[in-house]
């Protein structure tokens, strides 16, 4: 009875997208549920998946909000 | 000093409702805090409760987003 | 499809116990699943519950580990 | 490779503010990342921080939603 | 910068195993990190994965500890 | 009423230590509680902190368990 939580920043996977699409979310749910079936023999029905989209300003890395961190690394 | 997290899909408890109501949230907070007092002798003041409402498309079960899963099961 | 996480300190509910008992855990699982059925009409089968026992030295409140905090408050 | 989750109620730090500001979030990210460097020698780059703002009606303490609890305590 | 948490019951994937093996954990980490690269273009280096093994008596479903639930369903 | 969760790998902060010490945990609890007081005016008493130590083989980054990842990076 696995429970999977996927936290990602709320942004698009390509520059023309503003957020994760419903199709991408469905692909994450399908992929990770299949992975738990393949690796641990967990039936698909027994796996719950929750996707949490986190606002960019609420995500930090390197001691900075993620956008400031990326700008610094891109320099 | 218990900490309880309740994650539910963002939908109403009856067809005419679109989301969990404030009264329902208060009932969850009261009920689970009382449960921790009854079972583990935890004072009400010592229990924190956080309710997280998860968008339907962000919740997966059976390898599918929850709405697609329910449709499949209803067939 | 609710998911409930209950975090408690790893200690007994009475002085002669060292930890939460299996019967107490079962009572928490039963009680919170029933609460979600009563308040939000969630079927028992759709609710997952995870209990996390946290070592006393890993739990803080009031800027102190919980045992130090309780001693301070008891003075 | 630490992961820090900070959950706070969605409210301002002073009466004239409605929510946590971007500057306050940056200060939380900076401060907690520095703390993990100072105490555990974790490099800044290795620490992820996620801030979760929780609606007031979704946070409970003392068996009540937090606003009702504060009113009761203020009496 | 995704963060994935995988919670599973502490039990083996086959009857002769008592717990998830290190090789199975590595397969979960590899698979879910690859999934986030494939679906959302997240670089492997940017994804953190945490696996949490939960004691059987700490996991509930259907209002019962998971072992009691499975026995009931197997009848 | 903030809730802070700090997840770290279960290892020492220096080569001669096997795990995080009680003094280091107390320093994390004190530091992050003070941070929330300084930045958001949250009273010390209102902040809960939970430290979760995660086994090395249960933590992944770069598609690998963390020890394999560090060896690769050290080459």
From TrEMBL, chains A, B, C, D, E, F:
The keyword Isomerase applies. Residues 2-68 form the 4-oxalocrotonate tautomerase-like domain. The keyword Magnesium does not apply. Pfam families: Tautomerase. One of its GO terms (molecular function) is isomerase activity. Keywords: Isomerase. Belongs to the 4-oxalocrotonate tautomerase family. This is 4-oxalocrotonate tautomerase.
């Amino acid at each position: 009875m696995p429970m999977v939580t996927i936290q990602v920043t709320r942004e698009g996977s390509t520059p023309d997208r503003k957020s994760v699409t419903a199709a991408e979310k469905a692909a994450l749910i399908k992929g990770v549920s299949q992975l738990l079936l393949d690796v641990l023999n967990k039936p698909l029905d027994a796996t719950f998946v929750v996707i949490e989209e986190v606002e960019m300003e609420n995500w930090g890395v390197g001691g900075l909000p993620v956008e400031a961190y990326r700008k610094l690394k891109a320099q």
